[in-house]
Amino acid sequence: MKRHPEISTRTPQKLGKERAVISWQKIKWWFEDFAKYLTENYEEGIKILKDASRIYNADESGFPQDPKSGKILAAKGSKNVYSTCSADKSQITVLACMSATAHYLPPMLVFPGERFRFNPLEGFTEAVLGRTKTGWMDSELFYTWVRDHFITAIKDRKVKLPVILLVDGHTSHISLETAQLCKSENVILYCLLEHASHILQPCDVTLFGPLKKHWRDSVRDYQFKNPGEFVTKGTFASVFKSAWAKGTTVDVAIKGFRHTGLYPFSVESVDKSKVEPSEVFARAKPDQDLGNDDDMNCKDAQVDNQ
């Protein structure tokens, strides 16, 4: 460390092997395929990508009811520094959706269970209630969200059709029913490159990180104002409301689409440093072709090929 002042200790982000082998070539192919698909299947073709109001991204992330606290101030030499925590380690799934013009749809809060003795949205009635047995997103709930909330929102906003809705390739997003619905409503449901959401998904790149920081701050403020109490399923929505208001800014949305190369549409805007791990894998396994992957083209989720 003394001999190399240009380096420093850092806490690495965990990166799964599937994501680590994403190459620059795969990303270029995805951009080319997307542009080709629009050109061949829609009258306006690539022009659709030049209208920021017609490009949306939707994704989910889990928010723990008792998030890890950050560093705190304590007296020097303190032998023990504690932070009271809840025994409940469950989390609530939040579906977020935003456009390249910073149009945020109300978040969907997905709670585990089907019946409640309380109002899950108390304190944040603008949010959308989602319910599944596990608390995770499933294909039926995503279909309901697209039908009752996404399509309704773009119609109320009078967004010009067709509209692009970019999602990852999770099975809950690309069911046959959802694909048919989108096709009938002139919504282009298109999959991002598999295992590349940390590079190409605006919600992942700029929204969820700051949003989770605001969530931790909101939980801490709640506990300061209510000593001895913890965030429960009944209070989650009211506490999450302030975090959502602080995290969903115009700057976050615009930077999210810009840094992923989705608007303005250009693969050269993608952060190439995020694909450097693939070069390490390529050197370690030169016989492995990181540019060919039978599953790399997670095509449009419409039913053209069904």
From TrEMBL:
Gene Ontology MF term list: DNA binding
Pfam families, per database record: DDE_1
Region (Disordered): 281-306
Regions of compositional bias (Basic and acidic residues) in chain numbering: 296-306
Every DDE-1 domain range: 90-225
InterPro entries associated with the record: CenT-Element_Derived (IPR050863), DDE_SF_endonuclease_dom (IPR004875), RNaseH_sf (IPR036397)
A cellular-component GO term for this protein: nucleus
PANTHER family named in the record: POGO TRANSPOSABLE ELEMENT WITH KRAB DOMAIN, TRANSPOSON
Protein name: DDE-1 domain-containing protein
Originating species: Mytilus edulis (Blue mussel)
